[in-house]
Design goal:
Helix content is about 50%, strand content about 10%. By secondary structure, it is an alpha/beta fold. The protein has a single domain, classed as Rossmann fold (3-Layer(aba) Sandwich), CATH 3.40.50. A five-stranded parallel beta sheet has the order 2-1-3-4-5, sandwiched between helices. Helix 3 packs across helix 8 and helix 6 runs parallel beside helix 7. The chain starts with a helix and ends with a helix. Keywords: Signal. GO terms for molecular function: phosphatidylcholine lysophospholipase activity. InterPro entries: Ester_Hydrolysis_Enzymes, SGNH_hydro, SGNH_hydro_sf.
């Protein structure tokens, strides 16, 4: 093969590799799916903008489903990993387990299984935790919250302790149901997630 053709071929390969942006898969429930919001107001969409501003060419794929539990997410994850082949997984599930009073131990098993499945496909995982209101009882709410930290420690993945950190006690930043954040709260969620994600992206 002539030298000129070899150079052209190698240059084409380099360009092809450069064009392949890394993929971030957001795997969550209604808090990430944009429940009650207009298109492009949800925090995963705003995260895409933040990534570009910070100089990252990563593509965010939001595969979150309203009402999803960790059991449902675990069932669906394998197909999503095969389809999207993500480089990073933001795992935001567990809130619906807590609202339904499901066993934290089972939630932890499901979270661990999803982290392991993602890791087996070569994806780095950011686990995002949740907290429950006090009316669920101190013992249950404490055990629920501790589960996220225990899973993160056991699986050696970074943890964002609380998705709604900094505004959970501000009713004006929640929709009338008192559960789902408003559009005004979405940038705050991005800031919270970014604190855990930026180190993972650079690692």
């Amino acid at each position: 093969m002539p030298l000129r053709s070899i150079v052209t071929f190698l240059f084409a390969i380099l360009l092809s590799g450069a064009a392949q942006a890394a993929t971030i898969l957001v795997w969550g429930d209604s808090l990430s799916a944009g429940y009650g919001l207009r298109p492009k107001e949800d925090w995963p969409t705003l995260l895409q903008t933040r990534l570009a501003r910070e100089g990252f060419r990563h593509t965010v794929i939001n595969a979150s489903v309203s009402g999803e539990t960790t059991a449902g997410g675990r069932t669906r994850l394998s197909a999503a990993l095969d389809r999207h082949n993500p480089d990073f997984l933001i795992l935001e599930l567990g809130a619906n387990d807590g609202l339904r009073g499901l066993q934290p131990a089972l939630m932890g098993e499901n979270l661990s299984a999803m982290i392991q499945a993602a890791r087996s496909k070569g994806a780095k995982v950011l686990l995002v935790g949740m907290q429950l209101p006090p009316n669920y009882g101190p013992a249950y709410t404490r055990r629920f919250q501790q589960t996220f930290a225990e899973v993160a420690r056991a699986e050696k993945v970074p943890l964002v302790p609380f998705l709604l950190d900094g505004f959970a006690d501000k009713p004006e930043l929640f929709q009338p149901d008192g559960i789902h954040p408003t559009a005004e709260a979405q940038p705050l969620i991005v800031e919270t997630v970014w604190k855990g994600l930026k180190a993972l992206l650079k690692g």
